[in-house]
Amino acid sequence: MKDLLKSLRYTLLALLASLLVGAVIIVVTDIDALKVGDYGKAFSTVLTAYKSLFEGSFWGVRSISNTITGTTPLLLSGLAVSVAFKAGLFNIGATGQMLVGGMTALWVGFTMSGPGWLQVPLAVLAGAIGGAIYGGIAGVLKARTGAHEVITTIMLNSIASFLVLWLLKTTVFQREGRPDPISKLIADEAHLPRLFGFLEGRSDLVAHSGLFVALSATYGYWYLLTRTTLGFELRATGLNSDAAKYAGMKSKTLMVVAMLLAGGFAGMAGATEVLGTYGYASTSLAGNIGFDAIAVALLGQSSPIGTLVSALLFGALQAGGRSMQAHTDVPVDLIIVLRALIVVFVAAPLLVKAMFRVKSQVSAQGQTFRGWGG
Amino acid sequence: MNQVNQVAESLVLSAEQKKRARNVGFAYLGLAVITMLVFSRRPGDAGFRLTEGGALLTLPAQQIAWIFGLVFVGLGSAQLWRGFGKISNIVLALATAMFVMSFLSWATAGESFSLVGMLQDTVARSVPITLGALGGILCERSGVINIAIEGMLLAGAFTGAVGASLTNLWFGTVIAVLTGVLLAWILGVFSIKYRVDQVIVGFAINFFALGITSFLSFRVLVPNPDYNSLVPVMPISVPLLSKIPFIGQIFFVQTIFVYFSFAAVALLTWSMYRTRWGLRTRAAGEYPKAAGTLGVDVIKLRYRNLLIAGAVAGIGGAWWPIGTVGRFDQNITGGRGFIALAAVIFGRWHPVGAFSGALVFALAEAVRLKIGNFDTGIPSEFLLMAPYFVTLVVVAGFVGVSRAPKAAGQPYDEQ
Fold first, then answer.
1. Selection from A158, A162, A143, A141 nearest residue A92 by Cα
2. Looking at the 3D structure of chain A, how many domains does it have?
3. How many CB pairs (< 8 A) connect A and B?
């Protein structure tokens, strides 16, 4: 518990440090104000920007709803990268796995008709299976031929995006009367129930119960790592695959299992996006989430709780960033800069310590990823 | 006696190698099946323009498919029976070229297109991937994982565009180089000095570069369009060499960036394997303790290599605004840095290998851009994903395990 508080404090300090740097960036790029020497305006931009950043992420039900919506896919796909890291694999393929999982979930979502309590879990499961199979391809290729997962997952991402583009133009998936690649709507029963559905007439509260899917997946990941033999073997392989092999673990099988799990998590991310956020699928279904997920996993050091906290932080920043762009002339891309700075500051406790003159021991961090493997 | 041992060793292939050789054999047979079943379906002549002006090479698509298919059968059987030994890589390259050729004949049957133009485009597009990959090799051979290639390319593209718009092309390139060096220095300070996980810093740099360039492009470049418009460099024809038929047009009518990347590949290959610096770099990447014990300043060496890598990647970034389109757009690199990373692994951390990887990926891109125009009866999406699929098969079937420098990713402890 004490450790948790300590690491939380460092995360907060890191957040503060990155907001400071972000403020400097906002001021020095306010070229129009600086040209006429209006420093007051430049600084007031910072205040209004950060105010709407905060308000957009936590102030009021709507902001919280947006934060939850942003967090859900980041958490699930973050787990997809984390579990691979734990086994010593670098999964850049969360995007592709999300796309495939999203499409399988969508298919169940609009072809089946049945009660929601049956259809929703089935659709999410279908997403997990679709993603797992797609992730498993990279695992099998690595285990059988040694093909490096960094190459194969990048290639699989491109293949998945063209596959989805094609699928969305087939009669099975394409919405009637639409020329562009966009899917049919899922059945009403297949929607993940909205979290704030009990509030009448608030259709702007889009947060959905995909959050619970993500939280249970996080719990499952924690349970796997800490309470099961498989989790122990995965971690052992990630830390030292030679030693693990010597101890009798089947490192090739573990590779495949890790990628199956990773794909499953990412597939669920795709499923919750389709079944909760959109209600249909388009080519931009996965967006940049697969890429952001890597930052989530790195920031959370691949641990279940760390991934959860960093996904929440990133989700909040994303929700706040949108409102910041709407209320000021500061582009939402500042969020990406802030995320990068947070990752660096958290990873470099020495630097934050120097900035805030904090006196305490910071435990040295291990490596997320042991070289390139081989 | 020693010789006998060597011969015995070469005869007794390891199980792994045997398996690989068998895979390759089956892959050739697979190519034969695809070629003969799919590529022989469309009658008509495929026209390939071999020069800018006219000279047309017409190939009967069906006959080509049958002939190449039979050759693949032959190659596959020979591979399964005896293997090709020392020339197996050359055979592989030839087979790939033949496969691409029969694919193109099938896709163009009844029409014609400029083959020389497509290959010229391939070479041009390989520049940022090659230079990014060289940056990766420089770092990783000395023991630092460089995931930040994408960030260096993107930041270089941005500052290159702004620098060149405000002053001139040379200055823009220099600014891009300095940007790459700056990012590399940051990577170095964090990973070498503060010993932060190299993957984390690298990724943070990617994010930072993506965020800051998008941010600035909205906040500064959009309101001030004259910060972001320049006239890119023109291709230069190399005297004599550009007169070689076909080849000359492809390799020697290019921008200065292309020639730079050729030179960089050659220089790095030579210096990595023929100079004291190269030996030390490789030692620092494989076994830094040993290198340190023998008096190599591993820390300094890693810093120096990182900074050179940043400079090279910066030039790769400058290719976008200064070598091609004449402006910067948000996320203009579009993941090419990761492709470069893939090229590093594909080429097994060897400059020439990475260069050939870059050419393969660039060819995939060039074909993709061309292929939209063909009407083959197969959904264009499948044709578009074909290059990635082929890469997957090549990597899985032929390249296989690539061994990284042993110490890449581990901070060096100076004791």
1. A158
2. 1
3. 180
